[in-house]
């Protein structure tokens, strides 16, 4: 293929990356060391600039979420007075200044008079990201190739309270062809591992926060067409157990309502979700399985 045809092909490709950064102050590693959040933000900005630098048609959006909401940091509708730094690409300056200003405003909006929520609203941020992708995809030209992916960077715990929201998001993303990547900074996230497996994305628990930027550039910067040619960490088992609706705990064997598909850890003659009264034999017992997939940097 000639250089001109290759250049023309690249110009017709549009790659959208949406980064969701969890800035919840109740994350364990953030409570122990407040500088961790600044370090993560610095690495995220460099990673975002690297994505924009790969191709002129690459698009980017940055979001933030905590226990009280989620919002877009970049691009921003607000007109900020941003002066370009000599020797720095104008778009990089705009991205860095806008993200830092908006994230400070977003964190300051956390209400101090109410109880802090330890569970970050990652599912809400993912829903907003999918809506944004749907809108952008409708604006593309007819012969233009469009691909999109979402990267979640978080140190929060797994939230079984958001189980149904997660499942709806995962299968919607799969239908839209959106890849979900997850970078965990603290512990294993079972539900988000399932989302990565369903959508064909990468999951990585970072073993050393000091090397966060290197892990982001190595595992998450390449798009899906390039990842198959890279030597990535070996796959690990994905826990496909579901969370019961009664106690919000992962179960090995659960009872599934045949009407609303709610999952319970114990048999009940009445579904507490849709209030259906079962005739014998009642809810259908199902065994949850595990599947090998995704990344473990420690192996």
Automatic annotation (TrEMBL):
Asked if DNA repair is a keyword of the record, the answer is yes
| Entry-linked InterPro entries | TFIIH_Tfb4/GTF2H3 (IPR004600), vWFA_dom_sf (IPR036465)
Q: Which Pfam families match?
A: Tfb4 (PF03850)
Which keywords belong to this entry?
Answer: DNA damage, DNA repair, Metal-binding, Nucleus, Transcription, Transcription regulation, Zinc, Zinc-finger
Q: Where in the cell is it found?
A: Nucleus
Metal-binding as a keyword of this entry, yes or no, is yes
Q: Which domain of life is it from?
A: Eukaryota
**SUBUNIT field:** Part of a TFIID-containing RNA polymerase II pre-initiation complex that is composed of TBP and at least GTF2A1, GTF2A2, GTF2E1, GTF2E2, GTF2F1, GTF2H2, GTF2H3, GTF2H4, GTF2H5, GTF2B, TCEA1, ERCC2, ERCC3, TAF1, TAF2, TAF3, TAF4, TAF5, TAF6, TAF7, TAF8, TAF9, TAF10, TAF11, TAF12 and TAF13. Component of the 7-subunit TFIIH core complex composed of XPB/ERCC3, XPD/ERCC2, GTF2H1, GTF2H2, GTF2H3, GTF2H4 and GTF2H5, which is active in NER.
**Functional description taken from the UniProt entry:** Component of the general transcription and DNA repair factor IIH (TFIIH) core complex, which is involved in general and transcription-coupled nucleotide excision repair (NER) of damaged DNA and, when complexed to CAK, in RNA transcription by RNA polymerase II. In NER, TFIIH acts by opening DNA around the lesion to allow the excision of the damaged oligonucleotide and its replacement by a new DNA fragment. In transcription, TFIIH has an essential role in transcription initiation.
Similarity section: Belongs to the TFB4 family.
Recorded hits in PANTHER family, A to Z, give: GENERAL TRANSCRIPTION FACTOR IIH SUBUNIT 3, TRANSCRIPTION INITIATION FACTOR IIH TFIIH , POLYPEPTIDE 3-RELATED
What name does UniProt use for this protein? Answer: General transcription factor IIH subunit 3
Q: What organism does this protein naturally occur in?
A: Polistes dominula
